[in-house]
Automatic annotation (TrEMBL):
Protein name, per record: NADPH oxidase activator 1
Species annotation: Cyprinus carpio
GO cellular component, one term: cytoplasm
SUPFAM superfamilies: TPR-like
UniProt keywords, alphabetically: Cytoplasm, Repeat, SH3 domain, TPR repeat
Upper taxonomic lineage: Eukaryota, Metazoa, Chordata, Craniata, Vertebrata
Length: 247
């Protein structure tokens, strides 16, 4: 598959997602024959929005197979595994996501085309959510307490609410990348899809008609005749002057 074709379908799918036309987005994505990890993430996000959990997990499996160090891929799959009640797999994904954050408090995926910042506390929150589903309340509280020491947008309110829920023995809902936030193709690559006019617009500087051409020829001919007559008269005058001088 040509790379330009992939960019075109990818861009059309993202535009459909922006319009919340998930089925049209999926139709475009299914036309891509050679996915990369970012386009497969878009596929997974589309399946999640459509409530197709098993298909979303399959897509995320491919995301991670194509980039085994993509922390946000493990984070997203941990949440979907919880939705499918696959708790052991969900907990394992949280561990891998934390590992590939490489002790960074936050990873900004903007440069890769995803307008999303993933914080370490969010990964810990999902791990606590798994333990809450396993009814391991003490472990969930311990992880949330550790998460409260992290820094990042929105952590204080959410962690506080989660700790209160755990004290009431309530199961926590997993965190996901917000709906509609997907990897997008680079703007420069999308711009290259637009037709270019390398020659520019044609500009008419002068219109030549048969009459104007004929007129121009007559003017040139007239000027040439006048020039010849002037040269002849000059020459004749010189000859006559010379003859008068001799006689």
């Amino acid at each position: 598959m040509l790379y330009i074709e992939l960019i075109k379908l990818w861009d059309e799918a993202v535009r459909a997602i922006d319009s919340r036309d998930w089925q049209s987005a999926l139709t475009k994505l299914n036309q891509i024959t050679e996915h990369n990890c970012r386009t497969m993430f878009v596929v997974a996000s589309t399946h999640i929005a459509l409530g197709q959990v098993d298909l979303a997990i399959e897509a995320l499996d491919q995301v991670i197979a194509k980039d085994s160090c993509l922390a946000v891929g493990f984070f997203q799959r941990s949440a979907v595994h919880m939705m499918a009640n696959r708790l052991e797999e969900a907990l394992a994904d949280c561990i891998w996501a934390q590992k590939f954050m490489r002790e960074n408090p936050v990873i900004d995926y903007k440069q890769l085309g995803l307008r999303y910042k993933m914080y370490s506390w969010q990964v810990l929150y999902n791990a606590a959510a798994v333990h809450s589903r396993l009814q391991q309340w003490d472990k969930a509280r311990e992880i949330l307490t550790a998460a409260s020491q992290e820094r990042g947008a929105g952590w204080s309110n959410l962690i506080g609410i989660a700790l209160e829920a755990i004290s009431r023995r309530e199961v926590l809902e997993p965190l996901l990348v917000p709906e509609g936030e997907v990897f997008r193709p680079r703007k420069q690559e999308v711009d290259q899809l637009k037709p270019r006019d390398f020659l520019g617009e044609a500009k008419v500087t002068r219109i030549f008609t048969l009459y104007s051409c004929f007129k121009s020829c007559l003017e040139i001919n007239y000027k040439m005749q006048n020039s010849i007559i002037v040269q002849y008269m000059t020459f004749k005058h010189k000859i006559m002057s010379l003859c008068l001088f001799v006689f």
